[in-house]
Design goal:
By secondary structure, the protein is α+β, with helices and mostly antiparallel strands. It has two domains: 5-48; 51-104, no CATH class. The chain is 41% helix and 17% strand. The protein is built from three helices and four strands; from the N terminus they run ααββββα. The chain has a two-stranded antiparallel ribbon. Strand 2 and strand 3 form a beta hairpin. The radius of gyration is 23 Å and the shape is elongated. The model has no long low-confidence stretch (mean pLDDT 85). Bound molecules: zinc ion. Zinc ion binds next to loops. Zinc ion is lined by residues 54, 56-57, 59, 80, 82-83, 85.
């Protein structure tokens, strides 16, 4: 994972504090910076998470159904709520955005079909 500018600055300040007889930088501020850094990293990671979408219509409205078939664990199947297809694909969020635009001719952000769920 790439180190953010912020986390480098945190490291620098912590190191300065460590080798100094008294804290050079406010430790409370460093804690605040750490929290902010964590949030930024989390956001970065969020964008890297692959999405499961319908292979046919690109919808992210997927439901999982479980068939028990007499077994303890059963079998689960994902299906698209929009078109009932059971073929899914895993895409990076940016790939999915491109595909969605290709399929619908508009960005999912502009879509008025979104039912908000
Ligand atoms: Zn679908």
């Amino acid at each position: 994972m790439k180190q953010t500018k912020l986390s480098k600055e945190i490291d620098r300040r912590e190191l300065a504090n460590k080798y100094s007889p008294f804290p050079v930088y406010c430790t409370e501020l460093i804690e605040d910076l750490k929290l902010e850094d964590k949030m930024i990293t989390k956001k970065d990671n969020y964008n890297n998470v692959p999405v499961i979408s319908c292979k046919t219509c690109g919808s992210l409205h997927i439901k999982t159904v479980r068939f028990n078939n007499g077994t303890q664990d059963g079998v689960t199947t994902d299906y698209c709520v929009v078109c009932s297809n059971t073929e899914m694909e895993k895409l990076h969020i940016e790939e999915w955005e491109e595909k969605y635009e290709e399929l619908h001719g508009e960005s999912h952000l502009d879509s008025k079909e979104d039912d908000g769920s």
